[in-house]
Amino acid sequence: MKPAAFDYVVPRTVPEAVAALGDTGRKVQVLAGGQSLILEMHLQRIRPELVVDINRIAGLDRLSVDGDTLRVGALVRHGVFESARAVPGPLGTLFARAVVNIAHPPIRSRGTMVGSFAWAHPASEWCAIGTALDADIEVQGPAGRRVVAARDWFHGPYRTARRPEELITAVRFPLLGDDTGVGFIEHRRTHFCFAQVAVAAALTVRDGVICEARIGLVNCADRPLRARAAEQALIGKELGPPVDGYRPPEDHPFAHAGRIAAARDAAPLAEPYADVEYKRQAIAVLVGRTLCQAANDQRSRAAQLKGDQQ
Amino acid sequence: MKITLTVNGAAYPLDVEPRRILADVLREDCGLTGTHLGCEHGICGACTVLVDGEAVRACLMFAVQCDGSSVRTVEGLAAPDGEPHPLQRAFSAEHALQCGFCTPGFLMVAAGALEADPNIGDDPERVDGLVGSNICRCTGYEPIRRAILRAAREQQGDRDGVNR
Amino acid sequence: MEQWTRREDRRLLTGRGRFVADIAVPGCLDAVFVRSRVGHGTLREVDCAAARAVPGVVGAWSAADLAELPAVPYTLLARLSTEEAVAGREWPALVKDRVRYAGEALAVVLGEDRYRAEDGAAEVSCQVDPLPAMVKPSAAVDDSVRLFDGLSNIAFQGEAGKPVEESVWREAAAVVEGRYRQQLLMPTPMECRTILAVPEGDRLTVWSGHQMPHRLRRELAALLGWSEDRVRVVVPDTGGAFGSKSAAFPEFVVVAFLAVKLGRPVRWIEDRLESMLVATRGRGQDQRVRLAADAEGRLLGYELKIDADVGAYPHLGAGLPMQTAWLATGPYTTPQVHATVRSVLTNTMMTYPYRGAGRPEATIALERAMDVMARQLRLDPAELRRRNFIPPESFPYRTPTGRCYDSGNYVAALDLALETLGYDKWRAEQARRRTDPAALPLGIGLSCYVERSGGEAGGLHEFGSVEVGEDGTITARCGAAPSGQGHETVFAALVARTLGVAEERVRLVEGDTDEQPEGLGSFASRSAQVVGALLQHVARRLVDEARERAARLWELPVDEVAWSNGLVHAAESGSAAIEVAELVKVTGPLRVADRFESGMAFPFGSHAVVAEVDPELGTVRLLRVVTVDDCGVVLNPVLVRGQAFGSAVQGIGQALYEGMTYDEDGVPMLASGLLDYLLPTFTEVPPIEVKDTCTPSPSTPLGAKGAGESGCIGTPAAIVNAVADALRIADPDLLQMPLTPDVVWRAARAPKLQEVR
């Protein structure tokens, strides 16, 4: 399980890194957190000839807010997001709910959010959140910088719009307003495996009516998905009272949205211990429950806002 | 590639292939075999060490990445005079080890967290997260959880005692 | 000393433990194996030429290059295999012409280190023409494709008990049937297998994380054609074993052979991916059961039919399923019990003992059937068991399946389990939830077991010695080899207690065939029961020897010389007294060595589980687990408790998480290692309450029975029964382990009990 030999460079600037990546005659890999890359190298599924270690590029570890946009630099580690206060507003809550599902503390102290966008594993929590929230991916190439929308970024398992000579420098998210509630629920067999299914949800409510819904689906297709049909079905629905018990009733709009997400939005692939039929079931259930969680979050935010105003 | 690792306070000037993982370099080049390899793909956590104070999988880092960094292993846990670390005493007291193969990894995960936040004993959920970071096949984990809490509370108690 | 609970702790907690991979031997070569990527096929070609040209590679060989390479030995110990089973079925250490399991070694590469050896292995090219891979007994049992030309895939057949009379089935008030799959499991010790072979002069020193160093010495010496005294096996610290580290594996054969051939140290440190492919598996049975009872719930007859997948070669575990057959009776007075075994060769790695080794399979089959019977008779499952327990006054009890249980109080264990759980309280909660649509359903499961510890006839003895030095230190030696059980602590304490001396004076030496010339090892939960008895026996003999010497010295009758606390003295006057160390100085070395044999013992217990099921997702959450185990007299409660807790968690692993699927080529779908084979992590561990009762064993002087396998044996059936109870499904056979969410969700959708009636 030892990695095969490779050449190793440590650029100090983004242009140096891009120059190193320009060596397209060889199999090149960018090393950021390395928590997927080195794992795959142990499993002998990736054998790069050149590894470009970007960990010593100054400034890539910046997490910043500019207006309504959060910018996550390429070296911001997962662990940063464990605190809901790392990012303002409901987005911070969503990240904090999601990040605890990414492996465990020693992995989260190395692995990076941007690395997840580069790796594009279908079970990545960040990638589905980015897709649902219309994140933008900043990449730097020899010809300069370009920005790719998340919906155009993912081309399939481990396949993205990044060209070999490009470096991802950051991912940008729109911040969420105080009228938005968020939820994230992951379903997996044990703490030490990828999600069978996970769902991220953000519900924006005005005057008790859902005016915007964003639902991200994790591991429900060969790439991260946004459940647009399910979202549409929620627009204009009353938020209603909190759900009693562990699930919304069958005729509840959230349960209905879950069934739509499973039947129309998702394109699940079979895997051991989860065939397509089971996955669709899990998607329907998880979407419904995550919406409940997001609705509860929205209610408590609204209540707090009211309290603050009084 | 020439690098210098500082391990448990001692400088190790080394010449290593870039592909050599930190755990192998610690074990073979530095002769510190307390760091064990249990799975070599980042899951089991037996190889966990502290790099610049943070717990990491030593199988998921290349040694060359740690050039200039400070690495701490289980061999550096006890005080220089040999006085055991509170975690070492607590693990024994709670019978938190049987075969002992996974033990260095659990100790280092806990040591990193305990040093970063001496009040972690007040937050059992975070302790649960630490115990949930690694795999043990012998103990069933519960004794490990108790040991970490015991060490954390003992340290807190010591400090509070001094403060009083 | 007192700041460490165990003597082992100091070194293991400070990074000074010494495992095989930690031993630095100058010039040692690392062995890496090139492995088959299909489960079944014909080997056409192996080309190692390119590998030999890789820098740092010292050599690369296929079977064709090593004509004199010996085959893998087989074992008759505990009837794990038989001469008939292995006849005509050679297990080559490197594949000669036919691949029979995925990962079977096709070539070996030796390198200056593991990195270089793997570089070389990547350059070996192999051609294997695939044959149909059969990974289940049902696929192989009809012999349509044979693993060995001209021989049946059924390598072994056996039975325990006599066939149940037809009239029993005909006349019983209730007969229930079931089909249960005991999935293949991976023992997964944290340290994989290890061997380091160092030639020194005309001897070979072998370091290995191993449970049976003397067996390994015997087997390696035999295959090298050497006398046993030329091989020394040393077991340093071992990172867990759970039954899986007691054989001479193909890789061991190759390493020992090449070390001798090259005259250089060679080691093989198995990595996790290799382990997932080719470490021995546990369990692996397809079972059919039939259980009959009268209207009052008295059991009348039980039938268990086992088709076991024993792997591709019958050498290690073809007879292992007999452990299940012999224990088919369980803790009940069922008058007629019959168990039959067919051991079927499949294109999988060998099945071999894994913690529990045949007893979990017996318990799970019977205890699941008991719950089905209770439902059929509308009896409380605890009450059904109570009506059928072998009563405490009936021991020794000879079972219809050929075991003679030494002692037991089964009802006491069940009562304690129910009381600890709060059985009635949970039944009330269950009823409440059934009327509350917002609540998740909840179930309660029981499992009562009896198992066997110590080993089989012919393997119930151990060798050892106790010696007093001139400085007063006492050294105990024995043939055991621990892998985390704390022998250094518990056996030193036992010897000290027997001699009446301070614990610090006693040191234990084990796991070294030069230190202890004969031995059996640590397996079958035998160490406390068999080795403990031996050490007590030898220590007592040492006292007698010291008294005899002093009696000669003082010219007194020996019965007037007493021993107390390391002092030999004249019993009457008290005038003559001598410290034992002084006695050694005066009379010469004092050392007593012996062999001691114990009987089999039969530990037992009752486990109870409360499980909550999410019927929409199929997830199972264990709210409470209670284990009550009886391993007779306990030598060290802290260590036994640790064993009970840890093994319960492994039992949870079998019930809910662990399992493997195979692709079309017969390759386990475990390419992502421990991300695919899911062991319980802390997050999965529920509140577990460990309790015990104590019924001493009359078959061993200490009264101790084996501890440590209880959870693997008792817990799984309790969990499955709890889930079945929560779902109230009509066909409990839908619940096959591991109870993954998809399995439970499907079962939850199936017709309920009352819908069928």
Give structural notes.
The complex is a heterotrimer of chains A (310), B (164) and C (757). With 310 residues, chain A is an alpha+beta fold. Chain A folds into 3 domains: 7-53, Uridine Diphospho-n-acetylenolpyruvylglucosamine Reductase, domain 2 (2-Layer Sandwich); 63-174, Uridine Diphospho-n-acetylenolpyruvylglucosamine Reductase, domain 3, CATH 3.30.465.10; 180-309, 2-Layer Sandwich (Enolase-like, domain 1), CATH 3.30.390. Chain A has 10 helices and 14 strands. Chain A has helices at 14-21, 37-42, 89-99, 105-108, 113-119, 125-132, 150-153, 228-234, 253-265, 276-309; strands at 7-9, 28-31, 50-53, 63-66, 69-73, 136-141, 144-149, 154-156, 159-160, 167-174, 180-187, 197-206, 209-218, 225-226. In chain A, strands 4-5-10-6-7 form a 5-stranded antiparallel beta sheet. Chain A has a 4-stranded antiparallel beta sheet with strand order 11-12-13-14. A 3-stranded parallel beta sheet of chain A has the order 1-3-2, covered by helices on one side. In chain A, β4 (63-66) and β5 (69-73) form a beta hairpin. In chain A, α8 (228-234) packs antiparallel against α9 (253-265) and α9 (253-265) packs across α10. Chain A is globular, with a radius of gyration of 20 Å. Chain A starts with 6 loop residues before the first strand and ends with a helix. The model of chain A has no long low-confidence stretch (mean pLDDT 97). By secondary structure, chain B is an alpha+beta fold. Chain B has helices spanning 22-29, 86-93, 103-116, 124-131, 142-163, and strands at residues 2-7, 10-15, 48-51, 54-57, 70-72. The model of chain B has no long low-confidence stretch (mean pLDDT 95). Chain B is built from 5 helices and 5 strands, in the order ββαβββαααα. Chain B has 2 domains: 2-76, Roll (Ubiquitin-like (UB roll)), CATH 3.10.20.30; 86-163, DNA polymerase, domain 1 (Orthogonal Bundle). Chain C has 4 domains: 7-131 and 193-278, Aldehyde oxidase/xanthine dehydrogenase, a/b hammerhead (Aldehyde Oxidoreductase, domain 3), CATH 3.90.1170; 133-182 and 283-391, Aldehyde Oxidoreductase, domain 4 (2-Layer Sandwich), CATH 3.30.365; 406-453 and 601-757, 2-Layer Sandwich (Aldehyde Oxidoreductase, domain 4), CATH 3.30.365; 461-597, Aldehyde oxidase/xanthine dehydrogenase, molybdopterin binding domain (Aldehyde Oxidoreductase, domain 4). In chain C, the strands form 7 sheets. Chain C has a 7-stranded mixed beta sheet with strand order 3-5-1-12-9-10-11, with helices on both faces. Chain C is globular, with a radius of gyration of 27 Å. Chain C starts with 6 loop residues before the first helix and ends with a helix. Classes of the chains: A alpha+beta (310), B alpha+beta (164), C alpha+beta (757). Chains B and C meet through α1, α2, α3 and α5 of B and α1 and α18 of C.
